[in-house]
Amino acid sequence: MTWPLQSQCDAFYGNPRGRNGGASAQWEKGNLIRISPPFKMQFAGKPITSIAINKKCADSLSRIFDVIWLASGKNQKIIDDWGVSVFSGSYNYRVMRGGNVLSMHAYGCAIDLDAPRNWFHDQDPHLQKCPKFYVPSRTKVGLGVVLGRAEAKMVCTSKRRASANRS
Question: How confident is the model at residue 28 (pLDDT cuts 50, 70, 90)?
Answer without folding.
Answer: very high
